Amino acid sequence: AHLATAVHHLAAWWDIRIASVLDVGSGMGMWRDWYHDSHPNVSVRSIDVSEHACATWNHERRDIASWRPRGKFDLVVCHSVLQYLNDKQAAAAIGNLAKVTW
User: Fold this and answer.
1) 96 phi, psi to nearest 5 deg
2) pTM of whole model > 0.85?
3) Alpha carbon distance 70, 79 (integer Å)
4) Which helix (H) or strand (E) holds 20?
5) Cβ neighbours of residue 63 under 8 Å, at least 6 residues apart?
6) Which pLDDT belongs to residue 77?
7) Among 67, 17, 65, residue whose Cα is nearest residue 43
8) What angle, 0 to 180 degrees and rounded to 10, lies between the N-to-C axes of helices 30-38 and 2-13?
């Protein structure tokens, strides 16, 4: 909650309005849940590669190294994900993330 609050307030300080969030590697869904509780008008799309995480915490099952979402997001959260990918997967994931940011 502290990290999400800090990031959201820093964006506001820079005059960046966050209306949409992509949460990659959502795990337990802490970013998604924080946005739903603190800013219910923000649209959050949460994804995870883990079948268990998706079934348990209701995320879309997606692999950011091979999947590129349509559209753009005001904020993309990819916390503790890239270090688990090999170099080729990480490069692909970074490219996919870059394409969905403004």
Assistant:
1) -65, -40
2) yes
3) 21
4) strand 20-24
5) 49
6) 96
7) 17
8) 60
